[in-house]
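Board notes, transcribed. Complex of a protein with D-serine.
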Amino acid sequence: MNDKLNRVFEIVKTHNEWRREECLNMIASENVMSPLAEKFFLSDFEGRYNEHDEETHYQGTKYSLEIELLTNSIFGERFNTKYVDSRPIAGAIANLCVYNAFLKPGDIFMSPGLTAGAHVSSTKYGIAGVMGLNSIDAFFDSEKFVLDVDNTLKLIEKVKPKLIMLGRSMFLFPEPIRELRDAIGDKIKIIYDAAHVFGLIYGGKFQQPLEEGADIITASTHKTFPGPQGGIIIARRDLDENDWRKIQRSIFPGIISNHHIHRLPSLAITALEMNAFGEEYAEQTVKNAKAFAEAMTEFGFKVLCEDYGFTESHQVLVDVREFGGGKVVAEKMEEVNIIINKIAFPWDTDKDVTQNPSGLRIGLQELTRFGMKESEMKVVAEFYKKVLIDKQDVKKVREEVKEFRKEFLEPKYCFPVEE
Ligand code: DSN
């Protein structure tokens, strides 16, 4: 067989075995779909087009339109709104579509700021910068790890942003949406980037942004919400019809031509599974994050926000400067098949984000999905201790990790697959 073709097969097989069977996957932005959602991920929709505004512009689209509308309706029922659009092909693209709907080059908007956890798309380094937007960082309380409302309100008064972006990629505690909304009135739009916590929100175990005063949620559909990779935009039910039209125009013909229809059956299946199991899954995820943070603290690690209960989300943040910094430690942990990523904390600089920042951002949503509970969190934390504090032999710990993972190979909180 052609060597390169052979290598393609090998890469996929080896990767699948490694990440699905031998690793503890703890990247806070990742997850796996259910077996049923995976089964329906590949279909003829994969190669088809359905560009549309109010009208479809291709023939052969009756089922692709139906699956899109059905998917939207499931989310619409959950969030009590008719304003759902599942066409954005990524969370960052959902942000782009919203920015493009409401802002023009030079406009000022407010976002959390990179080292306070903003997604790169909301900073000058990402989509906001590419669009020529002027993104001003809100103030952040780096002890409590929440937005500093008083100073941010003063800043809002001074710079008069056209839009406020809340929600973070480093995200421990809810945003003070209600406080902001009450203080600023309804003239400035509040957008909530729910990408990381979307599954927790869907499961009713994190704040409910639309009920608390946000106008629009953008999200990706594959983090704590364990669906296919993609994005979604959901607006409050009483959003001005014109504003929703601006968003939809921004989606098509603005930003997206075709919208990767093949992911929608899996997205719909995941949403239905989340209707059935999402509350339990979200609750266990947060419990596991807290249990993991406690175990890490007991083993001597500097876990952030101990005085505030460590976390209300799927994430745990650990200051690992004493072990060489976030990059060094994340690479070290990969040697034992524990997959995590480095993260910059508020006292780091923007440059540190890609260099060697202070911390680790550890997500517990995927281990939870495979059935781990609080008691397993202690075992997982102990692997960190063995590597970083006890400096045990890496090969030995890797074998222990693989052995431990073998007990947790089936995703839970999902429908069975009928053969
Ligand atoms: N950059 C991703 C994260 O890991 O948070 C989100 O897109």
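The chain has two domains: 25-30+277-405, 38-268. The first strand starts at residue 24 and ends at 25.
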